[in-house]
């Protein structure tokens, strides 16, 4: 950050986005001329936001009339929330019922999520974003605000779609275990995690093949994401396909929803007691600084004047055990909790 840069101040009525790409130390701030946004396709460079259950709607676009790098910023967070944490009892009950349904062959997989509420009593949103950026240089770290949709912030490891010079890149990401600092080649994955990974691979490959879209695959292999490890496979797709077609075919995938897709989505609506909002949607810059990248909205939270609401989920299969899944969501929470604790202790 340049010390002589003036702080950008955003009001409650402003729409803006701030993000840091994986492998970079800088951040980019985007907002429109009138600090507004649109909910229809735009040919202009924009920051895109899509919810989990978008029902065919176009992503929200924050048009990049202004693109500023590494400036400090201030957010005016005024709205309060009364949403409470998902209780362990409720989560375990829903998880067990879901696992039973999967074992009856009603589904192949369902992703069940929960909310973890952390009281917010001090700390600047800017400091939180910078802390996340420094802690997780390999993640896509983001913060955005659109009136009516609130403040969302996170550090996600999962690419939905990224355009390179010769191809598009997407991934299948599954399995979670604590990072013990071992060589990634030595990480052991049980049959449950390997099955979960193969389910996602099958989905990605099937959706591309059904549309006659050619691709090449790399993996699976183990990757780090914050304090945890995952299994990852990468797919490189012919650039002749469009972003819109690819995003519609790949979202929401089994890593965030389940299989069969429509049945799993209806189950989630019926049994989860909270609205996911933008959690498990996707977000990222499209055409800004010649970067075209959309990331799955994971390891994320909504920010309110009085609380942080962390959204945490896990994929349930026939081999799942409800108690272990609860512990996995608690492990995933550490990505955000470490930054929140640091920010509130300053």
Task: Describe, in plain words, how this protein is organized in 3D.
The longest helix has 24 residues. 46% of the residues are buried. By secondary structure, the chain is an alpha+beta fold. Helix 1 runs antiparallel to helix 6 and helix 2 packs across helix 6. The mean pLDDT is 92. Helix content is 26%, strand content 35%. The protein is built from 6 helices and 19 strands. A 9-stranded antiparallel beta sheet has the order 6-3-2-9-10-18-19-8-15. Strands 5-4-16-17-11-12-14-13 form an 8-stranded antiparallel beta sheet.
Number of DSSP strands?
19
* Biggest sheet descriptor: 9 strands, antiparallel
How far apart lie the N and C ends? Answer: 20 Å
Output the helix-strand order.
EEEEEEEHEHEEEEHEEHEHEEEEH
Helix-and-strand structural type: alpha+beta
Major sheet: arrangement of strands: 6-3-2-9-10-18-19-8-15
* Helix run count: 6
Share of helix among residues? 25-40%
Low-confidence stretches: none
Mean pLDDT, as a whole number?
Answer: 92
- Cα-atom Rg, whole angstroms? 19 Å
- Percent of residues in β-strands: 25-35%
- Sum up the overall morphology in one term: globular
Strand and helix layout:
Layout: E1 8-10, E2 16-20, E3 28-31, E4 46-50, E5 60-63, E6 66-69, E7 73-75, H1 88-103, E8 109-119, H2 125-135, E9 140-146, E10 150-156, E11 159-163, E12 167-178, H3 191-210, E13 215-225, E14 228-238, H4 243-250, E15 258-259, H5 261-271, E16 282-288, E17 291-296, E18 300-303, E19 307-316, H6 322-345
Parallel strand pairs: 1-7
Antiparallel strand pairs: 2-3, 2-9, 3-6, 4-5, 4-16, 8-15, 8-19, 9-10, 10-18, 11-12, 11-17, 12-14, 13-14, 16-17, 18-19
Helix pairs in contact: 1-6, 2-6
């Amino acid at each position: 950050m340049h010390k002589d840069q003036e702080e950008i101040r955003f009001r409650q009525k402003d729409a803006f986005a701030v993000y840091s790409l994986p492998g970079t130390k800088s951040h980019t701030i985007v907002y429109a001329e009138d600090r507004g946004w649109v909910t229809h396709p735009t040919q202009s460079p924009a920051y895109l936001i899509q919810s989990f259950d978008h029902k065919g709607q176009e992503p929200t676009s924050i048009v990049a009339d202004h693109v500023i790098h590494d400036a400090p910023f201030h957010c005016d967070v005024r709205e309060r929330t009364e949403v409470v944490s998902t209780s362990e009892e409720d989560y375990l009950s829903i998880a067990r019922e879901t696992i039973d349904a999967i074992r009856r062959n009603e589904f192949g997989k369902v992703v069940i999520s929960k909310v973890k509420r952390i009281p917010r009593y001090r700390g600047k949103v800017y400091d939180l974003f910078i802390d996340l950026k420094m802690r997780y240089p390999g993640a896509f770290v983001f913060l955005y605000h659109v009136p009516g949709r609130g403040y969302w912030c996170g550090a996600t490891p999962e690419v939905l779609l990224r355009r390179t010079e010769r191809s598009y890149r997407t991934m299948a990401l599954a399995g979670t275990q604590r990072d013990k600092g071992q060589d990634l080649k030595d990480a052991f994955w049980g049959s449950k995690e390997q099955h979960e990974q193969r389910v996602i691979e099958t989905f990605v490959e099937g959706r591309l093949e059904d549309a006659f879209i050619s691709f090449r695959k790399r993996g699976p292999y183990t990757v780090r994401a914050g304090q945890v490890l995952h299994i990852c496979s990468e797919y490189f797709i012919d650039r002749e396909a469009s972003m819109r077609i690819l995003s519609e075919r790949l979202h929401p995938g089994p890593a965030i929803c389940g299989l069969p897709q429509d049945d799993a989505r209806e189950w989630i609506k019926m049994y989860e007691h909270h609205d996911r909002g933008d959690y498990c949607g996707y977000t990222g810059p499209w055409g800004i600084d010649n970067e075209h990248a959309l990331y799955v909205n994971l390891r994320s939270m909504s920010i309110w004047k009085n609380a942080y609401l962390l959204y945490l989920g896990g994929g349930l299969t026939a081999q799942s055990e409800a108690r272990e899944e609860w512990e996995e969501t608690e492990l995933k929470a550490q990505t955000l909790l470490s930054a929140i604790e640091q920010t509130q202790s300053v």
